[in-house]
Amino acid sequence: MSDLREALLRDLPDIRLLTAPAELEHYGRDWTRRWNPAPLAIALPADTSEVQQLVRWAARHQVCVVPSGGRTGLSGGAVAAHGELVISLDRMRQVLAFDAAARLLTVQPGLPLQAVHEAAAGHGLIYPVDFAARGSCSIGGNIATNAGGIRVIRYGNTREWVAGLKVVTAKGELLDLNRGLVKNSSGYDLRHLMIGSEGTLGIVVEATLRLTDPPPPSQVMLLALPDMAALMQVFELFQHRLPLQAFEFFTDVALRHVLAHGASRALDGDYPYYAVCEFDAATEAAEEVALQAFEKAMEQGWLLDGVLAQSEAQAAALWRLREGITESLAPYQPYKNDVSVRISAVPAFLADMQDLLGREYPHIEVVWFGHIGDGNLHINVLRPADMAAEDFIGQCERVTKLLAATLQRHGGSISAEHGIGLVKRDYLGSTRSAAEIALMQGIRRAFDPDGLLNPGKLF
Ligand code: MLT
Ligand code: ZN
């Protein structure tokens, strides 16, 4: 390893490299905290040409490469635990261009999502993909996982908003994919292959993003519900009556953690389930429609209580109850499941899941939350203080196998928005058929015959 490190320092003297143990540890892991980081070195290229030089050097020396963004991933996609060269895009975080007529923003991959939002706002527009890690995650990582988040119900996933990509392949070639075109019916759309490929097909060095008009002013409601069946009824009613921007849920257990972590209580009583919903409400009439929907749900017994935010500060406080969950659970290093089913399959899937989890985790705390409006549930399992980490992971893996089988029966996915990475690699077959996986592996070989880009992830 030290010979290779010396060769790297000698061969690419102009590229910034980090090799101190603390730096290797910092850049070698993501939010999963499950694997011990052990990269060869961390490279911080300043531009596309340096990314190409690094990839070519890695190919010459048959060194594996881990592309790295904000490392907020939850599936181990950015982990470097086997002497890989980490190519961090941290220094490539500029806004490169804005095309007003086409409403396109071209950015470098290391730009944090929040900075993309700010750049769009500077032109009176929005980039609508959004989620709690906005300040730390990078747009390149969002593209690599086809990130979803809290506004998918209105705007879709990252994929919908990528109009062009420049990508460095494992051979060091630069591909310029789709170039911001709206219409381009000229064969396979390699841009879409790159989105969600988790760094296994190439390294995004430039992204051209679609922007759109900001939505009308909105209102935020917190709803308290008796059970998941009621949650689905309320979702259906609200979806029918209100222009929803978001419809998210969490349980009393999640609320307990987020309150203990500093969030403020919004309702006096304690209830089993909660939903945060945001909807366009530019006029008093729109607000009236929302209140009528609320009353109808109360009459039906689907709602137990609720509050409509009276100010922007209160709306932010209600959102914090949902968005603060991940951070409040982080000290427990939870085992995370991020699953989805078609929205119409949610009630039956939930019933099976509640049975399964109640049976398999009788004495273990399981925290549910997620993007119920997209059929996407986050099931976080917390390690009891008296259980060894290995035993805990073993038990979680065993239950994930059962969960994967349940998902398969309901036609769902083992990863809705976090990616497969290392964490869900063994369960890919529950979501994708053997024929699909063989084709995916063939695609990977076509782009990267030596298997040097993010090996071990996805397959
Ligand atoms: C969320 O919805 O908050 C994110 O996907 C993060 C998580 O699942 O912890
Ligand atoms: Zn999520």
- Quantity of strands, as a count: 16
How much is the radius of gyration in Å? 23 Å
Task: Quickly count the helices.
Answer: 15
Distance between the termini: 25 Å
Mean pLDDT, to the nearest integer, reads 96
Number of domain units = 4
Task: State which percent range the strand residues make up.
Answer: 15-25%
Question: Briefly, what CATH class of the largest domain?
Answer: Alpha Beta
Shape: globular
Strand order of the largest sheet: 13-10-12-11-15-16-14
Percent range of helical residues = 25-40%
What structural category arises from helix and sheet content? alpha+beta
Bound molecules: D-malate, zinc ion
At a glance:
It contains 15 helices and 16 strands.
Q: Top keywords for this entry?
A:
alpha+beta; binds D-malate; 459 residues; FAD/FMN-dependent dehydrogenase; Uridine Diphospho-n-acetylenolpyruvylglucosamine Reductase, domain 3; 35% helix; oxidoreductase activity; binds zinc ion; 5-stranded antiparallel beta sheet; Uridine Diphospho-n-acetylenolpyruvylglucosamine Reductase, domain 2; Alpha-Beta Plaits; FAD
Protein model, in words:
The chain has 459 residues and is of the alpha+beta class. The chain folds into four domains: 2-91, 2-Layer Sandwich (Uridine Diphospho-n-acetylenolpyruvylglucosamine Reductase, domain 2); 95-210, Uridine Diphospho-n-acetylenolpyruvylglucosamine Reductase, domain 3; 218-326, Alpha-Beta Plaits, CATH 3.30.70.2190; 333-418, Alpha-Beta Plaits (2-Layer Sandwich), CATH 3.30.70.2740. Helix content is 35%, strand content 19%. The chain has 15 helices and 16 strands. The chain has helices at 2-11, 21-27, 48-60, 113-121, 139-145, 152-155, 190-194, 228-241, 252-260, 284-299, 312-323, 325-329, 346-360, 389-409, 434-447, and strands at residues 16-18, 41-44, 65-68, 85-88, 95-99, 104-107, 162-168, 174-177, 203-210, 218-225, 244-251, 273-280, 305-308, 335-340, 366-371, 376-381. The strands form three sheets. Strands 13-10-12-11-15-16-14 form a seven-stranded antiparallel sheet, sandwiched between helices. The longest helix is centred in the last third of the chain and has 21 residues, at 389-409. Belongs to the FAD-binding oxidoreductase/transferase type 4 family. Its cofactor is FAD. One of its GO terms (biological process) is respiratory electron transport chain.
